[in-house]
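Suppose you are handed only these lines of text.
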Amino acid sequence: MHDLYTADNITLITGAQALSFETQRNSVTSILFEKDGQQFRAYCDQLALGANAIFNPHIMLSSGLTDPLIGRNLVEQVSLRVCVLLRDIRSLDGSTSITGHGYMLYDGKHRSNHAACLMENYNSPRAIRPERGKHTAVADLKFIFEELPDPGNRVMLSKDSRKPSVVFERYSSYLQRSATDLRNNIDDLLSALPVEGPAIVENEFERTEAHILGTTVMGRTPQDSVVDRNLIHHRLRNLLVLGGSAFPTASPANPSLTIAALSLRAADQAYR
Ligand SMILES: Cc1cc2nc3c(=O)[nH]c(=O)nc-3n(C[C@H](O)[C@H](O)[C@H](O)COP(=O)(O)OP(=O)(O)OC[C@H]3O[C@@H](n4cnc5c(N)ncnc54)[C@H](O)[C@@H]3O)c2cc1C
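From them, the structure of the protein bound to flavin-adenine dinucleotide can be written out as follows.
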């Protein structure tokens, strides 16, 4: 990025909050932002929003856009932690935080009934064992499930124009069935390991995977999406909406590389 920071024809403004943009017919003409308590307007030929799945829709709603899907389908993967004691295996070592991925439940017939799942083996368990000689003979696993988008889970405007209101209504029954299936089958699933006693599955899902997706999803038509396959708004053709908000689904995979790839493709298309 060094060239961008030092280029004479680029002004980089940090520590500012984009509030909304203005439009004329089918184009964005300017963006309003606040810095140090003062509001400014910057005029534009093209606008790329990259303010994530909470703030992209918030800025668009604050700009008066009324597409029914803006802010809808806020979604992320959902995980359950599982702890199991191991016999004669010291499982913790090395310098990486996740030492193994399991793809056994990633795809298959089960997905017609319940969610795809990615397993992660953590190198930093929440607790070590108290027994002499067995401190690290424990596996701390995370089962990360895909989740289905639900229009009820959403980002909305609030009374404070700088802060979005985020509404979470429910998990899908598709996801809930995965949790039930995991609880019922966890000992079978781990039977290849030398386990000592039954596995413990946490009661509650983790609060977040920090992989916030949805809310300005990509698709073919304004009826099923907010932006097209190149992340350009269906009507405002000089508006790019980048980042995790474009994801129409939430597979168990980490999203960042796909976010970067889609943004690079969007820039290629928009500035060719
Ligand atoms: C602790 C943690 C660990 C993670 N680990 C991984 C991982 O290992 N692998 C992986 O794939 N993903 C990981 N993620 C998820 C990943 O970081 C996000 O999915 C990704 O960064 C989302 O990209 P984005 O461009 O949509 O939003 P962001 O990265 O959130 O970028 C949006 C930017 O816009 C700015 N912004 C927001 N609103 C405004 C506004 N109104 N005005 C001006 N600026 C604004 C924000 O400050 C931010 O800089 C992790 C996330 C966290 C929190």
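What can we learn from it? The domain at 2-73+212-270 is CATH 3.50.50.60 (FAD/NAD(P)-binding domain). Residues 17-18, 50-53, 55, 59, 210-211, 243-244, 254-256, 259 surround flavin-adenine dinucleotide (CB under 6 Å).
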